[in-house]
Design brief:
Elements lengths: L12 H13 L10 E6 L2 E7 L9 H4 L3 E2 L2 E2 L5 H12 L7 E4 L5 H9 L4 E4 L8 H7 L4 E3 L22
Parallel strand pairs: 5-6, 6-7
Antiparallel strand pairs: 1-2, 1-5, 3-4
The chain binds zinc ion (2 copies).
The site of one zinc ion has 6 residues, from helix 4.
Length: about 170
Amino acid sequence: MESKKSVSHRPSWDTYFLKVAMLVSERATCPRMHCGCVLVKDKQILATGYNGSIPGDDHCEDVGCMIEDNHCIRTIHAEMNAILQCSAHGVSTQGATAYVTNMPCTNCAKALITAGIKEVIIFSDYHDTKAEEFFKIAKVPLIRLEKPSNEINYDLSSFTSAVIIK
Ligand SMILES: [Zn+2]
Ligand SMILES: [Zn+2]
């Protein structure tokens, strides 16, 4: 079978969704942490979320963080934002998989479990959390995968039918 150079970087589903989560995290507004979350069911993205302020509030990166007990409390976390997107649009999260750039905090772990998330996939750890204990209690598998590369393999010049807009 002929293999084209342009498809040689085709990622697995897990890598693909983790990379989407990484891209989503670029929208985060708190300089203390950039986190992205993608909720997936049947290989379809239900919602994405990053840590950011509530609608109408200033962004941490513009006015500084709102620190309480050494945590910034201004933002809604990525996982919560993804769940709340589903809530706002009437999309069921039951049985979905959460792809998250970071180990969830305790509250997000509890929210994911209660939202019916059946599996959580991450690539980075976070010490200040009881997430793992709650996932264990709820029998929600927590899967640690290798962090995908930051590279986006989109090379327009390799597609003969496309012309780059200048
Ligand atoms: Zn902040
Ligand atoms: Zn959280």
